Write the structure tokens for this entry.
Amino acid sequence: MPCCGRKRQALTSSRSSNQAAIDEQAAASGYSRPNIVFRYEGQMAAIFIGAVTGKKYRFRFRGDTQMIDSRDASAMSGEPLLRVIFS
């Protein structure tokens, strides 16, 4: 259905422009969002991709920690192999 594809694309671009505006306002005001530290509990190396930023977070071994952008943290907290250890 072509109409659904256009609506989805419009929604995605709308979210991106809204997020860019929010980030710009935050930068102008001097506010920065803190990163959140996650620990990996899996057995093998894994890569998780941030839902908002699209950034790749590589965990090399069990117990490896990464600082996750706060914009990606809510999606990452739903991953069963990741644990928040510092926010």
About this structure: The chain has two domains: 1-31, 33-87.
